[in-house]
Amino acid sequence: MIYLDYQATTPLAPEVVAAMAPWLGYKFANPHAPYTAGREAAAAIEVARGQVMRALGREAGQLAFTGSATEALNWAIKGSIGHGGRDEVVTIATEHAAVLDTVEWLGRTHRVTVLPVDAEGLVDLDAVRAAVGPRTALVAAMLVNNEIGVIQPVAEIAAIAHAAGARMLCDAVQGLGRVAIPEGPDMIAVSAHKVHGPKGIGALWMAEGVEPAPLIHGGGQELGLRSGTLSPALCVGFGAAARLLDERARADHRHVETLWRAARAQLADWTLNGSAEQRYHGNLNVRRDGLDAARLLADLRGLALSLGSACASGSGRPSHVLRALGIGDRAARSSIRIGFGRYTTADELHEALARLDAAAKAQ
Ligand code: PLP
Fold this sequence. Notes:
Layout: E1 2-3, H1 14-24, H2 36-56, E2 62-66, H3 69-78, E3 88-92, H4 97-106, E4 111-115, H5 125-131, E5 136-142, H6 154-163, E6 167-171, E7 187-191, E8 202-206, H7 232-266, E9 271-272, E10 283-287, H8 293-299, E11 303-304, H9 320-324, H10 329-333, E12 335-339, H11 346-362
Parallel strand pairs: 1-11, 3-4, 3-5, 5-6, 6-7
Antiparallel strand pairs: 2-8, 7-8, 9-10, 10-12
Helix pairs in contact: 1-7, 2-7, 3-4, 7-11
The site of pyridoxal-5'-phosphate (PLP) has 13 residues, from helix 3.
């Protein structure tokens, strides 16, 4: 299989597997237990916490591990409603379902505003300014879009939120380790499996003094903010993945840029969806007039590629992101997302795109 679906998930780094192995075997103690083996597990979790904080570029504040970024986003959004007596959430139409569906659910009882984007996929800062006001508790904006790779102006959005006394939440799931996470957000949600770590663990970073109300109640773990026994194996795996992001930042970046240039040249007559400039280059979302992308991918055995948002794949939902850009249903159905990164070789990318291009032109 040639794997080109890095936005859906990423291959586990061998270093991560090795770091996790003891914690899946003989190091089984509960990290919240008071005896030596428990304390050893707790210490390993603290090391991992520091590694994830470093990858986020944060020295202050606190980081709580969660079961996924979806949980972290739900917690940050639901737990911020009522903050400062405010009851409104403002977000953007191209956010991940973990944000949009949570906001929509809140909309049954609270005021919510979902801002449009332009044809490039970018939000208009004047529209953010106009939407955020004295009732706004939270503004949620993602850094790198999972479907089209477009980068929102997160620092500017955070400044607008703060000027109105609101909190700002950044979904940095696709940005972590790939683009610098700007200063400004009060909360940042991330996920291990998008950065060569294990599935089943995410985290919410909170700036000093920012504590959303708990979503999960119980044993009082994670400073009483997120109950539930932590998995040392998953935390250590996330930590190891984060350490690798730091160590390999320049090499990973150079590699992705090389692959991007080659892929763009090879698919030069395809149309790019979303901004070419404000974009992470490990995400090439392209379309061809008249193409039936679903049929094409079904015919291309041995290639792992995605049609739209992998998070929503299987749901049959049309891409809300492409629609928000003003891309009609027919053009959306002719779109393919090609996602590559650290372990993609230039040769396999070339082979995959040659097959894809030939099959598309033969359709
Ligand atoms: N946010 C973005 C931008 C994503 O791409 C994803 C996963 O695809 C999520 C949130 C949810 O992350 P998780 O799989 O950890 O729940």
